[in-house]
């Protein structure tokens, strides 16, 4: 079942039958980890023909209520109120992903080494986004963050000085990665290309309040530069040149590092989770499907957090490994596969019980595991 926050909101938007069907689809997507319409239809436990189930899904995804601002924004706003103190610094990453003929622009909030999608928009073209498209998608979500200090993070696609000026006027901090052939003006040196700025592996530089781009000559912003030092087999091929309105090098670099959490989110949406790139729906139905995935992703992340707090995550997945500084799996992974584990236990209980009876010398371990399973089940 969905968290109480979701239930209350969705009851105001969907009829009882629509709400129950919504629950079913989310549970199935979470279980089969595939958002192909045919795969969902095959798993949908309604006693009707498979083709009828597929058509029912198509009609459901075509409902006019499936709008990001109506279904998703109110939940995001409430979640922000619960998780973040007012005037707290919040990091938003803007990025684009594409596959087949789909070109998706996404804004996400960085949360515990992952990114939670806030808004997404299908571009009507292939290739990179432009300033107007970037401005439009960011303008859409500004109202959600009125009470917070926002930092916008973007890779080299979003290095437009127009975007930097606009973000600065909105009162946002930003860290936008520049291309290495971009030019800046330095005192006593004139205009130089960033690749000739002297940045080398293991070195950091900070050019404060310089003019950027020889054509636009925008001033007032700084360039934070860092090239990670090579260590054993870890070799960094190039450095970072970050356009920012932050005042310190360490602050800007620390902020930009968080941008890579959106890459993990894309992996979770695609091959590492829901196999979104295999979906064959388009247009309005695709946005509806993205909303479903976002609900499932958010729920799995929340459940994973709860399981971690209960201290039983080791029963779901191998959390740590020797020599690894970070966790092996995220809260999303724990929440997603915890559901799979307890469902398989229900299906195979008789076999499991028989195996445990044959290994009485491990009874204490099994009892601890049963207790852990009950704690995990209590989160669903």
UniProtKB/TrEMBL annotation:
SUPFAM superfamilies: Ribonuclease H-like
Any one Gene Ontology molecular-function term assigned to this protein's record: transposase activity
Keywords, in A-Z order: Membrane, Transmembrane, Transmembrane helix
Keyword Acetylation: no
Domain Transposase IS4-like residues, every copy: 137-294
Gene3D superfamilies xrefs: Transposase Inhibitor Protein From Tn5, Chain A, domain 1
Regions crossing the membrane: 286-302
Protein name as catalogued: Transposase
Superkingdom of the organism of origin: Bacteria
Gene Ontology biological-process entries: DNA transposition
